[in-house]
Amino acid sequence: MIFTNGHPSPKIDTPDSSQPRLIFKAVGFFSLITIGVPSNAIILSVFTHVRVTEKKLLPSNAILSMLALVNLLVIISKGLPQAIHSIGIRNILNDIECKILSFMYRICRGMTICVTCLLSCNQCIILAPSSKSWLSLKQKIPPNLPWVMLLLWCINIAIYPSCLIHVRAIGNYTTSKYTLHLEFCNHDFMTFESYVANGIAIALRDFFFVGSMTLASCYIVLTLYKHGKQIQGMRSSDKNPGKSVEYKASRAVVLLVTIYVALFGLDSCIWIYTLTVSRVSPVISDARVFFGTLYAALSPIVIIKTNKKIKTSLMCRSKDRLLASDATLTDSKEHQ
């Protein structure tokens, strides 16, 4: 973190009655960082290497690259501060750092919804029959994919300008009752109208994109079911046709959407519960933040396990290392 003149020195809390909660919190968020950062970095490095060496990247792989990027930024902007807070360190951010981290987290958290939706819709279009209307979409999506992603970034940036205006580091000042109290920062919406408008914008975005990805996934599942029936009809005693690349990719997309929708539903249930109580337990708040960030660590594992390009690249790198190791051993023996 950056330290500036006049910045309050980091404060380290002494153990108290909340220590068991902080221990579980530390284990959870440090595990999330340990899994999420390297796995998302692997996806980005593989697809960057493919883009540089092969001069092209499939639309689905480009979308997965964007998902890995926003996942990585979510972990850095939310998982890392939560992990630092769990070990008792306080007051390490100033106003500018709070604004940047809050803005980054909220935009990238929104982008995970949008990009996962884009991934499912893209796979839906791939599986769709080659009729005139679907064929037009199949032809238009690849060249316009960068513009679609730019539009998604613009939508999420437009929802959160208040992060750059009203977020401040925790300090000795008065806040309104429309304030979100975070570990290191306060997000004071100042007025009821601003608070409600922000909530409505986020809700509309979430339900639109979650609903769209759910509908697209239902279409994919229906298509896979029909495909499975056709494969069963084509099977013979001496030949068992394997599953197509599109079939395997579609299963992976459905799994990603299922994970996201399940975590989104859990997060929504916790949020609804918090509206029914007068005082929210810190355990509940920590659980909601953890489950809200968990997708950033789970989704790259699914991508690495199911994406053929990544698995092939990792296997090639592993073989290259083994060959280099064997060559080194051979040279050392010859010199002895």
TrEMBL record:
Keywords: Cell membrane, G-protein coupled receptor, Membrane, Pheromone response, Receptor, Transducer, Transmembrane, Transmembrane helix. Gene3D superfamilies: Rhodopsin 7-helix transmembrane proteins (1.20.1070.10). It holds the Pfam family V1R. It is found in: Cell membrane. The chain crosses the membrane at residues 27-50, 62-80, 147-167, 253-275, 287-304. One of its GO terms (molecular function) is pheromone receptor activity. Belongs to the G-protein coupled receptor 1 family. This is Vomeronasal type-1 receptor.
